[in-house]
Amino acid sequence: MQPFAPGISVAMSVYNGERFLAAAIDSVLAQTCPDFEFLVMDDGSTDASPAILADYAARDPRLRVFTRRNRGLIASLNELLALARAPLVARMDADDVCLPDRFEQQARFLGEHAEVGVVGTWTEDIDENGAPYPLHVADHPLDHAGFVAAVVTGALLLCHPAVMFRRDLVRDVGGYHPAFRHCEDLDLWLRLASVTRIANLPQRLLRYRHYSGQVSNRHATEQQINAAISRLAYAERRAGHTDPTVALQVMPPIDDLDRLFARPGTARAVRARVAPALLYSRAALCGDGFPILCRFIREGGRRDGLWRTVVRLTLFGAPLRALRLALLLAATTLNGPRARNDQTLVAQ
Description:
The protein is an alpha/beta fold. The protein has 15 helices and eight strands. It folds into two domains: 8-216, Spore Coat Polysaccharide Biosynthesis Protein SpsA, Chain A (Alpha-Beta Complex), CATH 3.90.550.10; 219-345, no CATH class.
């Protein structure tokens, strides 16, 4: 008997995802395209996730569950990529919901467009209860030219759990790089952009969930820092230079970036990009993003709207930080900036 050779490998990592896990699994198993294996890495969950996964695996042989100690999302995705038997890999997260024809439409598109290596979809944004979650942002770009233009403007590129890609292309570029925690997908898309074309379908084939416990909220500062560095690395590759991040296991502190990229002003440019992106994040302003914001101001960063951030910090329950920011804004207004921020070093 020939071994089963699925057309699609679905890759999903789970860590304490019991709240939304059943809905995510149900949406995958209900796909109109049944030719897939469903690979799930239980990344050391301590809640009911293992029991939920075991129950589903006992009822549907397409579901293959792997369990080990917690190692994080990037390690999980690379392991799932190595385990994938199909030429196409569909990403999925344990808190989102696929529409029934998502895999069918994406697989058909890739079959008809050999030049495209990654295809995402537009999304329907929902809150933790499944209700609409309105976002006032442009939809993801449809073709490769739009993708490259979105890299320049800093617009959205792809929704990670909505993508389907050609397995071997991703393996050939080294998979997900460990240094880019919490923006491992952005780094991967920017590396793939030099070897294949990237597209999105203009159908909303994934219901993408927003809630306070998701990674982008809890790790906003690190995510923004690594995203800025991934764009620097992209610019280096586009210019024909060696990417200094390619072999990193851990990202160095911001102040070491001048040495890493062999260019003075790199660290200051990264702070100039990161600080404005943190102004509405409670986790960042009350955590490790606040020192970056203060340094940005001392280095001459634009202060537009920062007095509103003083109010926001007060509302966030951080009155001492609100006072420190107010005093810093007052001092720099009186004395003028000590240095000019040069944002041209950061690829837009």
